[in-house]
Fold Small-conductance mechanosensitive channel.
Amino acid sequence: MAISPAAAPTPRQTAALDLTFAESIWLWLQANIMQIIGAVAVLVIGLLIASVLSRAAERALNKSHKFDPTVASFLSNIVKYALWAVVLVTVLSQFGVETASILAALGGMALAIGLALQGTLSNVASGVMILVQRPFVVGEAISVDRFTATVQRIGLFTTELKQFDGLFVMVPNSELWNQPIVNLHRHPTRRIELIVGIGYDDSMQQAREVLLALAEDDERVMADPEPQAFVASLDDSSVGVGLRVWCATSDYMQLQWDLTEAAKAKFDEVGLSIPYPQREVTMVQG
């Protein structure tokens, strides 16, 4: 015996089903009207408070000289998103939703995302530390690892450098933060140390006097601390005579070049030799 297919609902039955569904929605609205109003109020007020607090946090951070504007914007966004999460959980709790499971799911998602983006988050954390601690700022020259360059831009993920030969370098922030950083421009003054080799037959006293005279004649050399001339080393072929002077950081490179050139010219003028490397060879017969 064949089984006939189920008959399609008639238009009257369809209208009755629609009416029943509409009535159930209306009944649910009537039963939960207070929860709905409370949830909407919590949502609107919560979003307004989150916006106000995030802007207030950004303004407060921008007023502090310890925080870069990038860090201020980043931290204010964290405050805003955290408050949004609190508002969302509060709204769901208005309808009796079990928020503990939602929080556990969000925690699991955050852990999974953190593991997947471990390298990226490490760069972000390092970028925040660089912007907060300020071991260097834009425009300063630094020496780190194999790079000696001027800082062009500091971002949350990478730092852009310009080497002295004009090459562009982009370095992940985690690599910068985990290396010793030498800031070449942080302090207003720097010390120059110049070592010049003279022959063993030459006068060390005369060499020191010549170097000190060169320092006194250059107005870029600071008087305090006063220049120092000394015997630095006794090498195989020469005696190393040193000069230490202090100058403004902006004058460091050019002054070092000028003192080196002037020392060679003055030593030639007064007869102090800068010997070539020499080696004595003794021949033993038989």
Summary: The longest strand covers residues 189-198. The radius of gyration is 38 Å.
